[in-house]
Each structure stands twice: as C-alpha cells, then as structure tokens.
Design goal:
Layout lengths: L2 H18 L4 E4 L2 E5 L4 E20 L6 E20 L5 E6 L5 E9 L5 E22 L7
Antiparallel strand pairs: 1-3, 2-3, 3-7, 4-5, 4-6, 4-7
Length: 144
C-alpha cells in the first residue's frame, strides 16, 4: 500500500468517525440533582443556556422492568424537547416545552436488562430552562 492511499484511508476514517459521533449539547449554568432508587426516584436539571442534543443513560438497576414516569419541562426562551426512550431505543413518549409555560406529560417506559433508563434532550437556543423526571416502578399483579 502506498503512502498516498494510506493517507487518504486515514482521512476518510477520520471523517467517518466524525459523522458517527453522537451529538452533543453545550450547556451553561448547569445544575443537576439526582435521587435514584430501584423502585422510585427523580432527576432534576436546570440550566441558564443550552444548545444541541444529548442522550442520557441512567443506571437504576433491578433489571428489565417498566417505569411509570412524569416529565415536567420549563423553558423561558427557545426550544426544549425531551424524549423518553424504551429499551430498544424507540421513543416511548416525547414532550415539547413552550416558552414561558411549564408543561408535563406522563407515560410508561421500558428499561433494558441492566435496568437503565434512557432519554434524549434536544435544545435550540434554550434559555433559563430545565426538566424533572419522576419515576416509579410498575408493580405486577403479584405485587412485585
């Protein structure tokens, strides 16, 4: 292999790696509060400014299960969207913020076999905002 072809191959690999990188979100004034338990808990995040997209994986534990969740969003300016993701990556439900208003939505989310809760946050010019995710494990008929 010549020097020229190996250089081109390395350059193409670099471009491909950039295209496959997950999106990222730039956040200023970020504050995070987390209370995680296997049966119930909450995640609260506020920010002064945010731009971009970020996916989060929160290890709750206790294996594959279903959680009942409530998501509350608030943003003063710009766009804020939160998507709760099922175990396979499909969107269980999504909620879109409205500037100056607090919005909420409830729904069920399936965790993967490791008990990981996944969600994605999408922001565009978001200012003075935040979200809260409250969750509780769904009990089956046997009380488990």
């Amino acid at each position: 292999m010549s020097w020229f072809s190996s250089t081109i191959r390395m350059a193409l690999s670099g471009v491909l790696a950039l295209l496959l990188m997950p999106a990222c979100m730039l956040v200023s004034g970020d504050r995070l509060s987390v209370d995680l338990r296997p049966d119930s808990g909450n995640i609260t995040r506020t920010f002064l400014g945010a731009e971009g997209t970020e996916a989060y994986a929160i290890p709750i534990g206790s294996g594959a299960t279903t959680l009942q969740t409530i998501v509350i969003l608030e943003v003063q300016q710009g766009e804020l969207r939160l998507e709760m993701l099922n175990a396979g990556g499909s969107v269980a439900f999504a909620i879109q913020g409205r500037p100056g208003d607090q919005v909420s939505r409830a729904g069920a989310v399936r965790l993967d076999e490791t008990g990981t809760l996944r969600y994605r946050v999408i922001t565009r010019g978001a200012r003075d905002g935040g979200y809260q995710i409250l969750y509780q494990r769904v009990q089956n008929r046997n009380g488990q």
